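Structure (tokenized):
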């Protein structure tokens, strides 16, 4: 069929059918300050395609990308080296064009890599079982809270002050619309919060993060005992999955559910997505896990094969009884994760994690010596929090003008008076000595 633009009468008929007064009313939920008040200057409604491409290209050229300048951005999304083999392999037609396995046993290749992915996630997190992925770390966290509510038959979640603000907001929004309560602990830039005071007979779970949003490392073993004694579950979120190559996995600390963002392995920053959510749990909670789970079996001839063991989604037989309304897994991103981790191997991941920590330690030592700058962390993996003598947002903007992406101001993600001078700084294996020198000199000049 050819595409034919709608007439005014067509548009009015469609609007009447859905009960909308105008096309503009379809955007009522978008904040007014996020909508264009006028057409983009210089972009005409009647321009040749080449001119439009040239115009848009010039606009895009104003962005300062992480591959164009020293970058110390983190806060839940991290720039790592991705082996060329990963991009080459995931662009093969059988991977790139395949979609979710609605007739799963026919797609043995897809089920096999999902099985391998699940195995890797379970080993990384120290948990018994993992699913075939979620959309991202934030939605995986929300699904974990919903699962804890089902397991405990309680409807109150306690969220750590060290939980990423985006993760927290997704959980709070989900709770508001699906009927569970959330208790949000105050921001914890010092890493010293005591969440045991929030435990009670109505609490289904406590959600913590390791490393925390501010970079602090914690051992939750003792806290897990207190959580379990109250009848609740402990959910641990991990935004930097590479950290599990060096620090103890949440499963060893007594976590009941582990959620994570897998973007750091195999997936570029990509302006915020698509990413891949990781989800793992204790085996006794298997039947309450959201999403899909691929399993191993043998066929009638005794040959090894794979099946879709669990698929309690609303698209299948469960409907309103489904454990999740997430309609798919991030298959291609999960495959990229699996390929990258397979290429690294256990020794390679450990070495990569050690290199990340070493780079961050070197950078933290250099920046903490600058006048008026204070390092707030006594422990971290590859990201830490600096307290500056001035508000962080204009400092970062001044550094960007010097073509240095100096970090993420906490105030942008969590506006509050106490966050104004806080700056999150991340270093990875891609951070060079010259990058560190540039940030050190730039920050010193801007603060002077």
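Design, position by position:
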């Amino acid at each position: 069929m050819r595409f034919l633009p709608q007439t005014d009468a067509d548009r009015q008929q469609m609007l009447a059918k859905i009960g909308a007064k105008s096309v503009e009313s379809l955007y009522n939920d978008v904040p007014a300050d996020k909508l264009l008040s006028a057409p983009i200057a210089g972009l005409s409604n009647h321009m040749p395609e080449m001119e439009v491409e040239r115009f848009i290209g010039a606009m895009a050229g104003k962005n300062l990308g992480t591959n164009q300048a020293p970058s110390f951005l983190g806060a839940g999304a991290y720039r790592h080296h991705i082996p060329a083999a990963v991009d080459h392999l995931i662009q093969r037609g059988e991977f790139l064009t395949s979609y979710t396995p609605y007739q799963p046993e026919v797609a043995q290749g897809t089920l096999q890599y999902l099985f391998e992915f699940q195995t890797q996630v379970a080993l990384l997190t120290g948990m018994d079982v993992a699913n075939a992925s979620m959309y991202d770390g934030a939605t995986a966290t929300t699904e974990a809270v919903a699962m804890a509510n089902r397991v405990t038959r309680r409807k109150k979640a306690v969220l750590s002050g060290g939980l990423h603000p985006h993760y927290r907001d997704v959980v709070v929004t989900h709770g508001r619309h699906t009927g569970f309560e959330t208790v949000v602990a105050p921001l914890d830039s010092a890493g010293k919060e005591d969440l045991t005071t929030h435990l009670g007979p109505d609490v289904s779970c406590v959600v913590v993060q390791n490393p925390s949003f501010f970079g602090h490392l914690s051992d939750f073993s003792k806290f897990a005992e207190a959580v379990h004694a109250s009848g609740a579950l402990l959910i641990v979120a991990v935004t930097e999955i590479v950290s599990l190559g060096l620090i103890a996995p949440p499963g060893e600390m007594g976590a009941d559910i582990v959620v994570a963002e897998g973007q750091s392995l195999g997936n570029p920053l990509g302006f915020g997505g698509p990413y891949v959510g990781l989800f793992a749990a204790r085996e006794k909670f298997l039947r309450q896990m959201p999403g899909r789970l691929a399993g191993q079996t043998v066929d009638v001839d005794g040959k090894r094969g794979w099946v879709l063991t669990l698929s309690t989604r609303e698209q299948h037989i469960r409907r309103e009884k489904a454990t999740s309304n997430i309609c798919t897994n991030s298959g291609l991103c999960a495959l990229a994760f699996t390929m990258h981790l397979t290429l690294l191997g256990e020794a390679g991941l450990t070495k990569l994690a050690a290199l990340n920590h070493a780079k961050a330690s070197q950078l933290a030592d250099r920046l903490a010596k600058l006048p008026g700058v204070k390092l707030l962390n006594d422990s971290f993996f590859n990201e830490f929090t600096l307290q500056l003598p001035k508000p962080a947002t204009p400092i970062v903007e001044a550094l960007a003008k010097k073509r240095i992406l100096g970090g993420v101001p906490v105030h942008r993600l969590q506006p509050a008076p106490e966050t104004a001078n806080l700056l999150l700084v991340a270093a990875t294996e891609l951070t060079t000595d010259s990058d560190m020198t540039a940030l050190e000199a730039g920050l010193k000049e801007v603060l002077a």
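Reviewer-requested clarification: Residues 84-341 form a domain with the Aspartate Aminotransferase; domain 2 fold (CATH 3.40.640.10). The chain has twelve helices and 13 strands.
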